[in-house]
Amino acid sequence: MRLTDKLPASDQMPADNLIQPYARVVVVHATTLHICAHSNNLPNRWGGDAGATKKKAAANLWVDLPVTSLFSQATVDRIRAVADLPYPPPINLGPDDPLGLSNQQILVFRTNEHLVLEIEPRLPPKDWQMSLLETTELLSRTESVVDVLAVGSRAIYKTLGVDRVLAYQFEEGSEDGVVRHTHGNGSLPSLLGIRFRSDDFPEEAFRLHARETVMAYTTSDRAPVGFCGDLGDAAHCINYVLGCRTIYPPAESFVRESGLSTQISVMLTIHGKPWGVFSCQARDAVYLDYQHRTFVHLLGNQVSRELTSQIHDQARQRVLDADHLRARIRDNISRAPNLVRGLTHSEPSLLEYVPDTGGIAILIEDRIIQLGQTPGEPRIRLLMDWAASNLKDYDVFYTDHLAAHYAPGEDFRDSASGVFLAPLNQRRTEWMVWFRPERVGKVTYGSRDQKGPKKKGQWFKTTVETRTGFSLPWTEEQVADIRELHAFIRDVVIERYSELMRINRQLQVAYDELEAFSYTVSHDLRAPLRGIDGFAEILMEDYGPKLKDDAKDLIQTIQLNAARMNQFISDILELSRVGRANLVVNDCDVAQLVRTAMQELNRESGKSVDIKLHEPLPPMRGDRQQLALVFKHLLSNAFKYSSKQATSTVEVGYSASNSFGDGEFYISDNGIGINEDHHQRVFGMFNRLVSAEDYSGSGVGLAVVRRIIRRHNGEVRIESKPGSGATFFFYTNLPADKSDQTF
Amino acid sequence: MYANKILLAEDDTTDAEFFQRALSRLESPPELIWCKSGTEAYQGLTQHSDPATLPRLAILDIKMPGMNGLELLEKIKSDERTKNMPVIIMSSSDEPQDISRAYDCGANGYLVKPNRFQDLRDLVGSIHHFWIKTNRLKPVHD
Predict the structure, then answer these.
(1) At what angle do helices A145-160 and A290-335 cross, to 10 degrees?
(2) Distance from CA of B73 to the nearest CA of A (A)
(3) Where is the Phytochrome chromophore attachment site domain (chain A) (predicted)?
(4) Residues from chain B contacting residue A570 (CB–CB below 8 Å)
(5) Which CATH number fits domain B3-135: 3.40.640.10, 3.30.565.10, 1.10.1790.10, 3.40.50.2300?
């Protein structure tokens, strides 16, 4: 639709009431059809341009005359017929028109009070349909943004006969833009990869282009042409809508300074927002008529649509990929034993969450955790302090040029020119920071920086600038992605985390009480037990000879049961003891732990059994006494359950990786194995999976093992199938600096 | 000279009776003075603090109502009249911290109450044996 609606007052384009000299404009009153104004280049009644006459009075010659003085009645009828159509077709001037200009055409624009008649030379028609068909077909086969731009540039190049078409993209998140594709005959430099500045495309240009996407300008040795008469409400149309309107000053400078004669730009928009522009240049004068402009406008629309679809597809794919990635990362975070481990050990890594992430630092529980390339810890802490006191008004803060906001950032711009700061708690004492490295390198601009005092000399002069302290900008999409992850971590995990902490504290209290209780009970239970056993013995000693064998058997049964009860109490006590004892944490030599356990087992059993020790073994961090118990119970278990094999094979070793990337120790046997359904049960108290007659023991050993391992912040698991032995895997996970750790 | 007596401070009747029975099976068993609480034991000791009447050995349970075994031990060891009397703490606990606490309070020995009567008898026997042997020597003074 041809747009004649008024531009908002904020539009700063020069309303100079001038047109390019190749066209002529007549403003006619809509109802009386009298001429209200016309451009000064109408032929005067005696031949020659109206504006060319020296006398001013002569210039107004056509004003107030009926429009029929210029056009034949038939032409005027056609003008009236099309004036109110949404897209008035051009009207050809013929030999009958008094104005002459028989190879030209009239374009009719309707304002409230006037008809604006733009008279321009008509060009030889082209096969528009075929061109459009071909381009549409080619566009439908494109697979990338650059493909689309290539097809579009070629079609425009062919249609307009210019020397060069630049496909220029405004850069998201930054103020500049870059030439993404170029097509031409080689007579002008390609400019591929050259950047232009935001000043080269004034805000008004964007707005005008959004309405009238094609803007053509041809230099001329003739000056722009003014008007005589009263323009009334036609002025807006003349300045902003007509095909022959003059263009904004930077474009004019560009044409003049580049030694060009023609500059045609076709705006590319996505969802109504400017995305880029086809900028076409020719050294010779190239005029467009309405048909050409319309065709190029259609091409631009086609390309915009195809771009929208490509970018939408890409974005969709990215969103899908990112969704998938995010889902996996979130899953890892929520399944990890704790938040920090989830954030640092996720696979895929958190670093892959947003493209071009150099590093991530997390300040949590007063610890700094670093992933990838980040500044050093002291610098991160200072940055966090700055953020905590200076970014109170931001929910998150991001920049691609940290030094502009935080001067010390200049010192570590290599790793942190771009930062994205997101607090993890209300008090802003915990943070997550994303770092982007400096995007080093020279940037070639097609123009000089116009900021600051007015510059003399050429505007569009190629300048090479070394941009320092800048990272890749954060795109809207990336910002949204990080916000989302951030919200997830903060709202879901942190909440759950603090909830867990609370529950843990309650558990600890309950657990402490239970420990005290089982200690007391176990000791108190022993006194009556001693009574039962002891008096039975006294009974046997004192009255044995007088008792029948049956009675003696009964007394023995009483003693046997008392002994079993006593064993249970010992086991409960042991379990309670490993839970209560303070841990003295060291790096323990595992081979030594195994040897100690073996000595003790051999001493207890009176037998000498052997094991295979796969050395070297890394040290195991924990309490030496408790770890010795772990090995004793696991080895004892392994021997017990493999004792019925012809040759009992028990092995101790270290396997280098588990699902969290850390290694686990293992103890394996070739015994009877354990059904998978029972893998968790074996660690319970007094859970025995085989009869006591076959394998002695009360079944508390593995419960002790698990309790010790869990106190050491580790885990123990079993891999086994019935009949093919069992392997117990276990690890401890204690920090190097904590010597008194309770789980 | 210490009397041929053993003091037992034990609130549990069963354990006390056990001890009594274990003692009674010895040859020339010593007299057992059984106090059911720390307070009672301390009163008895202070009333018979003369070396001639003071028991040869005191065996104290830890867990007792009122004054417990360790408190009693501290009192015995801080009293000039009784501090040279050997004291053995006998408890069902084999917790290392209980044992070291007993020695910190000045115990001369720590025994874990045997779970089997047979073991108790052996234990009492060996204490008695020790006692007979030391009886032939001079009383222990600093």
Answers:
(1) 170
(2) 21
(3) 144-310
(4) none
(5) 3.40.50.2300
User: What is the rounded average pLDDT for all residues in chain A?
Assistant: 81
User: Is A637 in the same domain as A501?
Assistant: no
A562 shares a domain with A457: no
Q: For residue A529, which residues of chain B lie inside 8 Å, CB to CB?
A: 115
Judgement on whether residues A524 and A648 belong to the same structural domain of the protein: no
Edge-first strand order for the sheet with A715-720 is A612-613, A650-655, A664-669, A726-731, A715-720
Among A316, A249, A227, A212, residue whose Cα is nearest residue A3? A212
Which one, of A274, A310, A303, lies nearest residue A183 by Cα? A303
Q: How far is A581 from chain B (nearest CA, A)?
A: 10
Does A527 sit within 8 Å of B12, measured CB to CB?
yes
**One-letter amino acid for residue A714 of the chain:** G
The count of CB pairs under 8 A between chains A and B is: 40
Whether the predicted pLDDT of A362 surpasses 90: no
Residues of A with CB under 8 A from a CB of B: 523, 526-531, 533-535, 537-538, 566, 577
Residue-wise pLDDT for A408-465, tens only, equals 988 888 888 999 998 887 778 888 899 999 887 667 777 777 666 666 666 667 777 7
Instruction: Show me where the domains of chain B are located.
Output: 3-135
Looking at the fold, whether A543 and A398 belong to one and the same domain comes out as no
Residue type, A607: K
CB contact under 8 A, A537 and B14: no
Query: Any idea which residue has 């036609």 for tokens?
Result: A234
Q: A588: distance to nearest CA of chain B, Å? A: 22
Summarize pLDDT for A562-601 with one digit per residue, the tens: 888 888 888 878 887 787 777 888 888 999 899 888 888 8
B54-93 pLDDT, tens digit per residue, is: 888 899 998 888 888 999 999 999 988 888 888 999 888 8
Mean of all residue pLDDT scores within chain B: 82
Residue range(s) defining the domain that contains residue A456: 336-474
Residues of A in contact with B15 (CB under 8 A): 527, 530-531
Question: Is A531 close to B21, i.e. CB distance below 8 A?
Answer: no
Q: Is residue A317 part of a domain?
A: no
**CA A431 to CA A12: how far, in whole Å?**
44
User: Inter-chain contact A526–B120, Cβ cutoff 8 Å?
Assistant: no
| CA-based nearest distance A527→chain B, Å | 7
B115 CB neighbours in chain A (<8 A) are 526, 529-530, 533, 566
Chain A environment of B18 (Cβ under 8 Å): 530-531, 534
Q: What's the mean pLDDT in A466-489?
A: 83
For residue A560, which residues of chain B lie inside 8 Å, CB to CB? none
The closest alpha carbon to A21, from A227, A223, A262, belongs to A223
